[in-house]
Q: What sequence folds into this?
C-alpha cells in the first residue's frame, strides 16, 4: 500500500533514514514523502518538494530497505509520485537528479537530461 507519510509515521521514517544513512544516503525530513507499506511496516519512500513561485517540483529521496529491493517497490513509488504531481501541479516543471541506478527509470518516465551532474567525494 502507498500513502502520504504523516506524523504517525515518524518512528518508521526515522528507521528508514537510519538505514539509508549507513549507505551514505541522506534524507531531509522537511520534504513531503510517500511511503510503501507491507503489513503496516514502512519499507520504501520517495519524496518531493515544491517551489510555488518558480512553478517547480523537485523529486528527492527514493529509498527501499535492502531486504525488500528487487520487488518493484521503488518503481511503484516513483510512478505514484509522478502521477500525483502531474495531477496536482499542472503547469509546473519537475526536476530530479539521477544517479546510475535511477537514470533508466526516469528516462522511461519521460525525463530528459538537461544538465549532466557529477557527484564527487574526497575522503579525509
A:
Amino acid at each position: 500500500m502507498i500513502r502520504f507519510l504523516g506524523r504517525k509515521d515518524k518512528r518508521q521514517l526515522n528507521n528508514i533514514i537510519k538505514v539509508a544513512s549507513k549507505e551514505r544516503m541522506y534524507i531531509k525530513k522537511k520534504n513531503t514523502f510517500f511511503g510503501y507499506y507491507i503489513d503496516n511496516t514502512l519499507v520504501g519512500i520517495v519524496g518531493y518538494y515544491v517551489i510555488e513561485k518558480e512553478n517547480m517540483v523537485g523529486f528527492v529521496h527514493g529509498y527501499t530497505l535492502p531486504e525488500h529491493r528487487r520487488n518493484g517497490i521503488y518503481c511503484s513509488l516513483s510512478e505514484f509520485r509522478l502521477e500525483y504531481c502531474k495531477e496536482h501541479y499542472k503547469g509546473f516543471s519537475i526536476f530530479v537528479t539521477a544517479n546510475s541506478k535511477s537514470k533508466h527509470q526516469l528516462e522511461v518516465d519521460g525525463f530528459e537530461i538537461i544538465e549532466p551532474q557529477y557527484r564527487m567525494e574526497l575522503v579525509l
Summary: Helices lie at 10-22, 73-88, 103-108. The mean pLDDT is 84.
